Amino acid sequence: MSQITRRRFVGSGMTIVALASLPRARAQAMAPSLGYPATRIGSLGTLKEGVGQYFAYPDDAAQGLLLKLGKPAIGGLGKERDIVAFSAACTHMGCGVAYKGERLQCPCHYSMFDPAKNGQVYQGLASSYLPQIPLRIDAAGDIYAVAVEGLIWGRARNILSKGA
């Protein structure tokens, strides 16, 4: 039986940390959204920069937040690539998040998420990104939610598992 050296132990730990921090897009590719119907959630004409609009998606029990950030965002649409949407349920305990000062904030335990970077958590008790809701904009300027990338808090299955 071989002994594990301190160097090998630390090296293995670093490998695990590196694998766990792979970009979110790769994780999402492994966990695609269920086939939710495209749902109209707003329009370009009523969307105001810096003001979030709440909507129900993928069903009446789940609230989302539509944003026009005023700067380009990962997954953003529109002329400036700044229109994005996220689940409004914090990934820590499901409290409703609000858009304040260029970030999504949870009032319950102070988690903060960056809407320009896929809803990445950068402060607080939440340990995962907010699920991003991919959008489509039609020729008339109507905005549609078309999927959910990630697991909405409190749900056991809103994404497909491998082989399902």
UniProtKB/TrEMBL annotation:
SUPFAM superfamilies named among the record's database cross-references: ISP domain (SSF50022)
Entry's Gene Ontology molecular function annotations: 2 iron, 2 sulfur cluster binding; arsenate reductase (azurin) activity; metal ion binding
Keywords: 2Fe-2S, Disulfide bond, Iron, Iron-sulfur, Metal-binding, Oxidoreductase
Annotated Rieske domain residues: 53-144
First and last residue of the signal peptide: none
Enzyme Commission identifier(s): 1.20.9.1
Database matches in NCBIfam families: arsenite_ox_S
Name of the protein this chain belongs to: Arsenite oxidase small subunit
Organism: Deinococcus metalli
